[in-house]
Amino acid sequence: MTENFFAISNGQPLNDVTPLVAHHLLVVGQTGSGKTTTTLSLLDQLQHANYTTIILDPTGEYSKLPNSVTYKLGENAYLEASRLSAHQLREALQIQGNQLLNDKLAQAVDALRIQQNLVQSKQPYVKIGVPIATYQKQLARLSDWSRSFAPQNLAAQLIEEFVVPFADERADYSLLGQQYDRQTINHEWNLIATLRQRLASDAFRMLFDPDPHPGLFKTELNFVIKMFLEHRSSHRTLVIDLSALKRYEESQRVVISLLLKNLLTARLQKPNNFPVNIVLDEAHRYLPKDEHQLADNGIFQILREGRKVGLSMTLTTQSPLDLPARLRSQFANLLLHHMTSPEELSSLAIADEVNLSKISKLSTGEALLLLANESQKKIKVNLPKWWDKQA
Q1: 178-211 pLDDT tens trace
Q2: DSSP state of 2
Q3: Spatial CA neighbour of 108 closest among 40, 156, 47
Q4: Which range (131-135, 149-153, 171-175, 249-253) has the least confidence?
Q5: Is the pLDDT of residue 6 over 70?
Q6: Which whole number is the average pLDDT over 4-30?
Q7: Percent over 70 (pLDDT), the chain
Q8: pTM confidence score
Q9: Roughly what angle, to the nearest 10 degrees, separates helices 249-269 and 221-230?
């Protein structure tokens, strides 16, 4: 018999928790108010209900969840570098740059794709003396099957992108270049050196898995997610453990956004007849600092477009004020733990329906549940019994 962890204030168990994730669910509450308890208990009951759930876990906190399938970045999973644009690569590697660097990095990626897929070489593409017509024909041969490249060569290839004709009568403008633009290379040298350092870092090797490792099999994260989207899991939960990047919050933000955008694209291309819930703790940490970039973020795109293809999100945050107003407006379901700030309550669309004094008196593990088109309920959440055994 399934154990019930959600109980209404009168003691009656909340037997079916699937309505909580039928729409996007926001779980709010101060530290120690019970957000983790709520999320773990919800996940446990969804698992019993055979509801497909994908957890993006930036801290590794969900490794204790029983019956989960865990793919940990740097151990048994990696991200294919070709999935990222030049701008995303730069962000994932935490490289500050200008438009020139973005353009040259994009050209470097194309050159390395040619080397790996057409030339079958692991060396950088030396562009001095190469006819423009030859290079354009090579670019035209690239397609989806030839997206892979050797990201560890990006810094060396970037130097090859700074080639120019001779500055005198020997100039041949039919070639990609005849000499290195040493002045520009010297001007951008700090960025190139930083890129080389990042590419040699442990974080890079964990993220993109560029090194051969005979006998050790790793799976590409987007492939894992795609399989879970296409085949209903049998009482299992997928955990994508990104804790290897804990020290690199900006890199985590880029990776989470990319995985979610690819997840949405996969569902749009191949809709399925079973719903999927996506869970992310402390979501505000992984949103862009510039709100103008929100529309390009995977979290926002899932919230805005996911429901039409059966994707819902469960996000937790300490304060709704940490989330942009455009994002807060996407939640039809709310679980409100202890809050004392009138500003936080007024930032939610249901402010007129909820009494602040009622929320401020909630004890740890208690919450106010507000579902779309239903009356609010005060609930008590208990940790699953397996949690004590794991602690």
Answers
A1: 999 999 999 999 999 999 999 998 888 888 988 7
A2: P
A3: 156
A4: 249-253
A5: no
A6: 76
A7: 94
A8: 0.85
A9: 40
The gap from C-alpha 377 to its chain's centroid, in whole angstroms, comes to 32
CB 123 within 8 A of CB 115: yes
What letters, b where the CB count within 10 A reaches 16 and e where it falls short, cover 198-219? Answer: bbeeebbbbbbbeeeeeeeeee
d(CA 356, CA 362): 10
Backbone angles phi, psi at 286, to 5 degrees: -115, 20
How far the first Cα of the chain sits from its last, in Å, is 24
User: Residue 256: pLDDT above 90?
Assistant: yes
Collect all residues with Cβ–Cβ distance below 8 Å to 176 and sequence separation of at least 6. Answer: 127, 128, 129, 130, 131, 132, 135, 163
Neighbours of 271 (CB within 10 A): 11
All structural domains of the chain: 6-79+214-390 (3.40.50.300), 81-204 (no CATH)
Within 8 A by CB and 6+ apart from 186, the residues are: none
pLDDT of residue 361: 87
Q: How far from 214 is each of 80, 116, 217, 313, CA to CA, in Å?
A: 18, 20, 8, 38
Joined together, the tokens standing for residue 97 give 């740059």
